[in-house]
Amino acid sequence: MPLHPLTTQIVGSYTKPRWLARHQKMRALDGSWWRPEQDVLAEAKRDAALLSLYEQERAGLDLVTDGEAQRAAYDRHFLPSLSGIDDKTPVHRAAPPIEISLKRSNSPEIEEYLSYSDVKPRVVSEIKWTRSVTVDELHFAKLHATRPVKVTIVGPLTLASQVSDHFYNDEETLLLVLAGALNQEMKALQAAGADLLQVDEPYFHAHLSVARKHGKRALEVLVDGVSIPVATHVCYGYALVHQEKSKSPTYPEVLEILSECPITAISLEYEQPKHDPALLRYCGQKHVVLGLLDLARKDIETPEHIAGRIGDALEVIPAERLHPSSDCGMWFLPRASAFGKICSLVNGTNIVRARL
Questions:
Q1: Which stretches of 160-313 are assigned E, i.e. beta strand?
Q2: Are 218 and 152 in contact (CB under 8 A)?
Q3: What is the pLDDT of residues 8-47, one digit of tens each?
Q4: Which residue from 116, 210, 251, 274 puts its CA 20 to 30 A from 242's CA?
């Protein structure tokens, strides 16, 4: 299994250069996220993926990703793999208010970024998985990586929040249909040689009322027949949008739900909200991918700080089930900051390894 004691990694995305992407257009449906012209776009995406792999391996991370460099939004990236979804005539529909208290950053770029989330493709007929959108990305990463490769996939609760349902008209049905379709993507990645799959489900936290009703069943459908390790990542949302975060009183319940699901690991946000090790008791016997890089700060955590946080966490979770990571996706950070942070993550982990 790729999760040996204290396996260092990032959640998924790494720096996405501004020569590649317009950051405020992450969820735009018209492709305007990408800066390069169409005739060089595929090459530009692959170059960005190579940079991501190179920097993660140079820093010494044990488990690497392609930085999601060939994707725009981590969630909407998967919509083209599904039939029954119309993105040509979307509707404007604001998402329901999130169920956690967060202070939102204010800037014209953030307002534009958020505005695209209200433009929803419509579910107009039966949803079926038609093709993989990530297997080619995995093949490319494994061709160039010298370390095990993790691949991220959106979870059904989170993907459901990105569409407007005009066909099923039933929350549970939509979630389970999406879970079944995404299960086919996961099986394709497993067959293609992924070492670990990570399911991104921030909706579990942002809309806990839905997770309480349907979260466990949706994850059961999602991972059915998948035999390689699966982690589920649940966070507070991007630090780009939420520069300030306080501890959420419902986060322990989220972790408790996940602890009862058929997954290998729980990937959680820890550093920016300043959680303490008591939180980790809610993860049960799962592996814990522990977020130790505050992405609201461009300055770099010291290895000693990271070593201290790991040491405290080891009072609750043994080393064989604890894995240092970033808090969330790093796509919006400047490269120098992102690289410095992952170097500190590795160096801080090595301090702890030496002690052990």
A1: 164-165, 196-200, 230-234, 244-245, 265-268, 287-291
A2: no
A3: 999 999 999 999 999 999 999 999 999 999 999 999 999 9
A4: 210
Q: Where are the beta strands (DSSP E) in 244-286?
A: 244-245, 265-268
Its sign, for the CA torsion 36, 148, 294, 248, is positive
d(CA 194, CA 271): 28
Contact 210, 247 (CB under 8 A): no
- CA-nearest of 261, 267, 256, 198 to 228 is 198
Q: Give the tens place of pLDDT for each residue, 209-219.
A: 999 999 999 99
Phi, psi torsion values for 129, nearest 5 degrees: -75, 130
Tokens representing residue 20 in the block:
């590649």
Provide the token pair at 256. 């408790």
Q: If we measure between CA atoms, which residue out of 291, 286, 234, 235 comes closest to residue 263? A: 286
Q: List Cα–Cα distances, 120 to 79, 89, 163, 337, in angstroms.
A: 11, 9, 5, 33
- Two tokens, residue 200: 């991104």
Q: Is the pTM of this model over 0.90?
A: yes
Contact between 20 and 45 (Cβ < 8 Å): yes
∠ Cα 120 220 86 (to 5°): 20
Using DSSP's 3-state secondary structure scheme, residue 235 falls into: coil
The helix or strand, by DSSP H or E, that contains position 20, with its residue range, turns out to be none
